[in-house]
């Protein structure tokens, strides 16, 4: 069986005006990886690609570590921890940050939310798209964003699953240019080209698609383009094969069977969702389950629950 543990931000300090950027410190990452080491055996992407069926059929617990979004801090802080503990990993990168020199909209949102109350951003959305925000399911929203308060969860859900990408970008881009310089944020947020080449040499590099869109909400042509363009860019840049993809957002809406089919057609061998669960032999290899790091031992949710005796 295969357990996949996913990370995003890895930094020393998460202090902002408003809580919006969450992750682990290098020390927290190290502590969790040491705990996970007692739960199973870490596996590299190369070994997993080579022995996928055997790993999924095995009674042993193989553990794969992944990082999404191609953030510079993942190399600056996370990679050194991994190297110290001799643990392999996969880093999933978007190509829009390099090909179009754009900050991904998802990160613009994180940055804006670090400065602005969610209510301010929601107000901008309601002023423009109030007709699209009626009859939303609170229970569904809460099930997707289990670590957020109600207002923050609503904002995330509306941005990611109610507004289409053009509508989302219209709102966010107008706010973003008032507070940030895109070129500066590009340099500080994302891995350098040399970082990507370094990861490729280690067989640690995978695709997170081109634009960080929830692919399942798009037409077939767009899904194919998003999956293919990032793969081609990373392969041409690093002179290596890119055979793994992590779908942005990773929910059932974002990575449907159609998305998995297109990923296979484009040439990916393994695809990762954010559906929580262990993977076994019945799993679709292009729709593998993946835990958020907080869902596993050493994560925030497990620590919280253990204090109250829930587990």
Quick synopsis:
The protein has helices at residues 26-37, 45-50, 52-57, 72-85, 96-99, 105-115, 118-129, 138-144, 150-162, 165-176, 182-189, 193-201, 220-238, 257-266, 300-307; strands at residues 2-7, 9-10, 23-24, 41-42, 62-68, 90-93, 205-207, 244-246, 270-272, 291-292. Helix 6 (105-115) packs across helix 10. The protein contains 15 helices and 10 strands.
How would you characterize the overall build of this protein?
By secondary structure, the protein is of the alpha/beta class. It has two domains: 2-101 and 194-307, TIM Barrel, CATH 3.20.20.370; 117-178, no CATH class. It contains 15 helices and ten strands. The protein has helices spanning 26-37, 45-50, 52-57, 72-85, 96-99, 105-115, 118-129, 138-144, 150-162, 165-176, 182-189, 193-201, 220-238, 257-266, 300-307; strands at residues 2-7, 9-10, 23-24, 41-42, 62-68, 90-93, 205-207, 244-246, 270-272, 291-292. Strands 1, 4, 5, 6, 7 and 10 form a six-stranded parallel beta sheet that branches. The chain has a two-stranded parallel ribbon with strand order 2-3. Helix 14 links the parallel strand 8 and strand 9. Helix 1 packs across helix 4 (72-85), helix 6 packs across helix 10 and helix 13 (220-238) runs parallel beside helix 14 (257-266). It is globular. Residues 303-311 have low confidence and may be disordered.
């Amino acid at each position: 069986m295969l357990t996949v543990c996913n990370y995003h931000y890895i930094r020393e300090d998460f202090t902002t005006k408003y809580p919006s950027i969450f992750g682990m410190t290098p020390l927290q990452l190290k502590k969790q990886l040491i705990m996970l080491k007692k739960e199973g055996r870490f596996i590299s992407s190369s070994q997993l690609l080579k022995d996928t069926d055997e790993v999924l059929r095995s009674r042993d617990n193989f553990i794969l570590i992944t990082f999404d979004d191609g953030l510079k801090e993942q190399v600056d802080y996370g990679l050194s921890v991994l190297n110290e503990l001799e643990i392999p990993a996969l880093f999933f990168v978007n190509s829009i940050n390099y090909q179009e020199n754009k900050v991904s909209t998802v990160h613009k949102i994180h940055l804006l939310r670090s400065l602005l109350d969610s209510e301010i951003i929601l107000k901008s959305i309601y002023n423009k798209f109030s007709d699209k925000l009626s009859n939303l399911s609170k229970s569904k929203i809460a099930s997707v964003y289990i670590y957020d308060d109600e207002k923050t969860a609503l904002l995330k859900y509306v941005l990611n699953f109610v507004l289409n990408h053009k509508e989302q970008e219209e709102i966010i881009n107008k706010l973003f240019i008032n507070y940030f310089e895109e070129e500066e944020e590009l340099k500080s947020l994302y891995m350098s080209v040399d970082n990507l080449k370094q990861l490729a040499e280690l067989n640690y590099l995978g695709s997170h698609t081109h634009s960080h869109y929830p692919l399942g909400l798009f037409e077939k042509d767009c899904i194919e383009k998003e999956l293919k363009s990032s793969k081609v860019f990373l392969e041409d840049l690093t002179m290596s094969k890119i055979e793994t993809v992590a779908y942005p957002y990773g929910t059932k809406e974002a990575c449907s069977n159609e998305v998995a089919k297109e990923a296979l057609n484009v040439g990916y061998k393994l695809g990762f969702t954010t559906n929580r669960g262990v993977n076994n032999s019945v799993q679709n290899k292009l729709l593998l389950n993946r835990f958020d790091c907080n869902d596993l031992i050493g994560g925030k949710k497990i620590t919280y629950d253990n204090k109250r005796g829930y587990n």
